Amino acid sequence: MQHTARLGTGGGRGIRSSAESGAWAVGEVSNQSTGYCPDVASWAAVADALDAVGIGHPGAYTHAVVFRRCPACREVAIVREDDFVCVFCDGPLPARWNVDGGPGAPATPAGPGGA
């Protein structure tokens, strides 16, 4: 029997987990979020939370989403296929995660020498 549940981590991120035969283990984990937009580097915090309560996990996000805030139009975009270009204004997206930064947050465009 398989059971699916939403679990919360300390940062308010939700994850989907599955359990079989009474032993809890996470089968799929994603950083996809419509508000928080965590960096893929946030996996370490998720793994620590799961390890702390003895829940097995795949060792990395099974579906990692790369979020960036466009320095030109300030929209949050999803980077697809390593194409660091804003889908809203065609401006360059930064190589480093910058979604939590305010209007004056520094951003380095990705691309040759910027990645």
Structure description:
The chain has 115 residues and is mainly beta. It is 9% helix and 22% strand. It is built from one helix and five strands. It has a three-stranded antiparallel β-sheet with strand order 1-2-3, with no helix packed on it. It has a two-stranded antiparallel ribbon with strand order 4-5. A hairpin with a 5-residue loop joins strand 1 (2-8) and strand 2 (14-20). The longest helix is centred in the middle third of the chain and has 10 residues, at 43-52. It is elongated.
Question: What's the layout of helices and strands?
Answer:
Blueprint lengths: L1 E7 L5 E7 L2 E3 L17 H10 L13 E4 L6 E4 L36
Antiparallel strand pairs: 1-2, 2-3, 4-5
Helix proportion range: under 10%
Number of strands: 5
Tally the helices: what do you get? 1
Q: Indicate the proportion of strand residues.
A: 15-25%
User: If you compute it from the alpha carbons, what radius of gyration comes out, rounded to the nearest whole angstrom?
Assistant: 16 Å
The parts where pLDDT drops under 50 for at least 5 residues are 1-6, 17-21, 107-115
List the helices and strands in order: EEEHEE
N-to-C terminal Cα separation, in Å?
A: 45 Å
Structural class by secondary-structure content: mainly beta
- Main sheet record: 3 strands, antiparallel
